[in-house]
Every structure is written in C-alpha cells, then in structure tokens.
Amino acid sequence: MNTLASPRIAFIGGGNMAQALMTGLQQRAFPMQQITVIDPDTGKHAQLQSALGVRTSQALSAEVLDAEIIVLAVKPQQLKLVAESLAPYLQSQLIISVAAGIRTSDLSRWLNDYKTLIRTMPNTPAQIQAGVTGVFALPGVSEVQRQLTDHVLQAVGDVVWLTEETQLDAVTAISGSGPAYVFLLIEALTDAGVALGLDKSQALQLSIATFKGASLLAAASSTPVATLREQVTSKGGTTEQGLLSLNQHHIHAIMQHAAQQAANRAKTLGDELGGQ
Prior knowledge:
Rossmann fold, 2 domains, 11 helices, 8 strands, 13% strand, P5CR_dimer
C-alpha cells in the first residue's frame, strides 16, 4: 500500500468539516475503507457508512487509531477532553487539528507533550471543495507528513503553508472570516440593485454571478488584480464613478479595520481556549 497516496486516516468527529474533507477525498477516488470516523453520536454512523463508505466507531481504541493520520475535527470547547483521552494511544501518528483557535502549544500540552502536530484554519467553501486552508506545522513534522497533509487538505481546496503560528490569526481574519465579508457584499450589492429598480431575484443573480465571475477571472489570470480593476474602469465612465464613491468612503480602511478586529478576536479566543 502506498501510504502517501492512501494513508490510513482516523477522524475524531464526524461533523461538517470532517464530512467536507471526506467528500473531497471520495471525489479524488481515495480508498474510503482506509478512513475510520470516531463519533459518539451513533445516529451519524449509518449515514457516513452509506454515503462515504467509511468505517465508524463510537469510541477511541488502539485498533481504530492505528493510522498514519488522526484528524481532530471536534469543537474547540471539546478538544481538551478529547486530547486527554487520545494521548495514551499516540505513537507516531500525525495529528491534524481543524479546531479553530486552539494553539499547538496548548494541544501539545493536553497530549502529554506530543509534538507531531499540524494546526489548520479551513473555511466554509471547503463544503463544496472550493476552500482555502492555512496550515502550520511544528518542527517535529516530517517532510513526508507534510506531503500527506497536502494530500488530505487539497481535497477541499487550496493550501497555504505558514512559517509562524501567529499568522493563523491573520488567516482567520482573511480567509476564515472572509466568506462572511463576501456574503455581506453580495447582500449589499443586491440591495443596491433593488433600489435601482431590479427585483430581488434578478439583483441576487447578477450579484452572485458577478462575484463568481470576477473571482474566477482573477484566479485564472496572471494579470494583477489591480490591473484587472483598471481594465474595467474607463475614464469618465460608470465604473469610475462607483469606485470614486467607494474610495471616498474609505473602502480599504474599512476592510483593514474589519480584518484587524477579527484577528484581535482570534488571538483573544486562543488565549481563552488555551486556558481551559
């Protein structure tokens, strides 16, 4: 068995993010029998087995944790108890945490000073395999284990490796919280369309398609986004007037302030959660 292509994976927690990762792996023809989901909610088991073809377990055991990768996909408030229960079973497994806000120093402490840890910050578009995940690894993680992490996380979108764990607060503010900013902008553009005489369904369709198309164009083009913006902005034209209004209302400062507030809150939550 090529463990790089088909590692054994144990997911602790079978919620939305775990299911998004497993769905992405399934779509990449990953051998799903290599995956075990450990979740005390037995009501989920039959659905996970039938929809994804994974094995399930209600509790931790040496057998179900005999894997190359263990993904911690529980709520942050539950992670300390889960980690303390997991610690006796650890040997050389790679631990990947998708629990928001929990720092590796705290997780390592709860795992009896275990160091083969990776902390991630995914975002909700992972649910349709269009997400982006910020990733930080402790020095004890090998190059092969980094490749395994890429293999798993790329199933739900792009992966951005970080050199400092503190950068995850910025990732939280930009891509973690970012989908909500985009949804708010779609709402605002839709409302503007309605105010200009469109019905709401028309305005919403135009707004979503515009965000989708502009994002796809930016992703597909080697042209800087500022240049793409300039290409839409004819001198004396309609777009120029709209952008002038946005700049007069300090759109860049508004976004920077929003991101800073989100990053500050991410740091505070890390302090609070780590103090459990």
